[in-house]
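My current task is to audit a protein record that another person submitted. Alongside the sequence sits a line of tokens, each denoting a local backbone shape. Where you disagree with what is written, explain briefly why. This is what I was given:
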Amino acid sequence: MTALEPGGMRTNWGRRAFDNRPSMLPEYQESVGKVLAQLESYWGNEPGDPEKVAEIVLKVANAETLPAHILLGRDSVKMIRQIEEARMVDAERWSAVSDWIDFAEEGQMPALPTP
């Protein structure tokens, strides 16, 4: 099984999905409203071509060997790279705690890392 992980694709989904949304309460305008405003400028400008994604899906369906994940689009690769780098920073920071759970480790639990 292979998970295809696409970034943004120009399918018009965003615009259609948000056309009939209810009015936003003023309390949410500063947070959710700003995110929606950013998305509105993104809709119709997504970098991914859905026809190319469809072509990849057809090729992958008939491929003999595949990886567990295929990232589709530069934005997808960029986002996953940032997520994995942050994850490794956390893993290193917490490694003493992580390692401590093994039977071979003796003594008290290490102190939790400080922020």
User: Anything to note?
Assistant: The chain has two domains: 3-71, 73-115. The beta strands are 3-6, 69-72. The chain has a mean pLDDT of 93.
